[in-house]
Every structure is written in structure tokens, then in C-alpha cells.
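Exercise 7b. C-alpha cells:
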């Protein structure tokens, strides 16, 4: 029984592809077939696959039904995290999604799931990536104070959801944790953040995240082990559509 993760499928069986990278990037050509083939070869029915956000381009659940059916057909138990493009998944309707897809898909937000003696906890997160502007040399060229305040507000909201996930798992008796985010835990300017702090505080062994696309973005955040926590990027194009084995 193994635990795998991958993110950013950006499926569009019922909707329009919006990102140029996906329309023209070679790595995205027939990516649905590549992923399903790799999953069938690697993942067994008893394994768990965590999909770390940005599942579909559809705006409403009715626009995403075929995308979610595709995910259902992948082998193993599927756990889904909310991404910034998952407009079909309203923050207050996670319980309704879990009720609708019970026994087929599991939606992770303000809750947790177990894997052996681990609790799988998580939230979408937020990266402080819009308020600052970099020049071509990577130096800060400008700062948007209003956007910075909004980012801090969103980070506080996501931290509350993440703490709820940890607290529920701890109340159930779990002491080992794998933490999932859609956004990376830090931005280009940070060595640590509120998300790395809670990972260390609560004893997460690993932090798994996605969102970073294209080779130029694969090192925007932490990769490897830092202060006792191992960080992994699992965006689909980074993994070349091969889910990463976490445990």
C-alpha cells in the first residue's frame, strides 16, 4: 500500500483551456493519456493518490463532471485538494462534495484523511507572489501595499483551515503528519513562512505542493529537506505526469 501525489491536471473535457502553456507546451500534449497510463502501470487499487489542486478549468460543477469522472477512473483511493483554479469547489461546500462523491472521491479541506499511521492534512494555501515585482535580474522593482494586505488576509484564512485540519487529526489520536498545499509554502523572497512554521510546529514530516509550472518556476520555493521537514513539488508537468511516491 503506497501513497502518491500529483497536482495541476488542468483538465478540460467540458471547458476551454485558458493557459498558453497548456495549449502550446509539448509536455502538455495528450497529458491526460500520459497520466492515466502512468497511473495504471504504477498505482494499485489499495494505494492512495492525492491530487494537489487545479483539477479542472470548469467554473461550475456541471462543467467539471467529465473531469471528475476521469479522476474517478484513475486507480487507487483519490483525495483531492482545492487549487486556485478550482472554481467548482466553493470553500463552504466541501461536505456537500464529499456526500455527492462518497465512495468515489474524497475532498480535503477543514478535515483530514488517514494513511496507515499518518494523517493527511492540508489546505489550498496562498503565496505572497503578486504584491512584489521583479526585474530581469530577480531584484525587487516595485511593491503593491494593497495587494500585500490582501495576501496577508488570505494567508490568515488558509492558516485557520490548516490548523483545523491538524487539530482534527490530533484529536483522533494521530501523531504523524503529511501536509499538502496547492500553492508553494514560500515565495521567491522567503526562506520561511507561516506555512513552514506550522509544518515544523505540528511535526509534519513532509510538505507536498504544486502550482509551479514550467522549468523556470520549478525552483520558486523549497525543495528538499529544511529544518527537519522534506518539501516536494508535484505539479504534473514537473513530474512529466508520473505521480510521485510519497511513502
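Sequence design result:
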Amino acid at each position: 500500500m503506497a501513497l502518491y501525489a500529483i497536482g495541476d491536471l488542468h483538465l478540460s473535457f467540458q471547458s476551454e483551456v485558458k493557459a498558453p502553456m497548456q495549449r502550446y507546451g509539448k509536455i502538455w500534449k495528450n497529458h491526460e493519456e500520459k497520466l492515466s497510463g502512468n497511473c495504471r502501470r504504477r498505482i494499485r487499487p489499495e494505494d492512495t493518490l492525492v491530487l494537489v489542486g487545479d483539477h479542472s478549468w470548469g467554473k461550475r460543477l456541471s462543467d467539471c463532471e467529465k473531469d471528475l469522472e476521469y479522476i474517478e477512473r484513475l486507480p487507487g483511493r483519490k483525495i483531492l485538494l482545492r487549487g486556485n483554479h478550482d472554481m467548482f469547489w466553493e470553500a463552504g461546500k466541501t461536505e456537500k462534495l464529499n456526500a455527492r462523491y462518497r465512495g468515489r472521491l474524497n475532498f480535503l479541506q477543514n478535515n483530514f484523511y488517514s494513511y496507515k499511521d499518518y494523517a493527511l492534512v492540508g489546505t489550498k494555501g496562498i503565496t505572497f507572489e503578486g504584491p512584489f515585482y521583479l526585474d530581469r535580474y530577480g531584484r525587487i522593482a516595485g511593491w503593491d501595499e494593497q495587494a500585500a494586505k490582501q495576501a496577508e488576509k488570505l494567508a490568515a484564512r488558509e492558516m485557520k483551515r490548516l490548523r483545523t485540519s491538524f487539530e482534527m487529526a490530533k484529536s483522533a489520536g494521530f501523531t504523524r503528519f503529511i501536509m499538502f498545499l496547492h500553492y508553494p509554502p514560500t515565495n521567491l523572497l522567503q526562506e520561511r513562512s507561516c506555512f513552514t512554521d506550522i509544518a515544523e510546529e505540528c511535526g509534519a514530516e513532509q510538505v507536498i505542493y504544486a502550482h509551479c509550472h514550467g522549468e523556470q518556476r520549478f525552483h520558486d520555493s523549497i525543495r528538499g529537506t529544511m529544518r527537519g521537514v522534506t518539501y516536494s513539488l508535484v505539479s504534473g508537468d514537473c513530474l512529466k505526469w508520473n505521480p510521485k511516491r510519497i511513502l
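Instructor comment: The two ends are 9 Å apart (CA to CA). DSSP finds seven helices and 13 strands in the chain.
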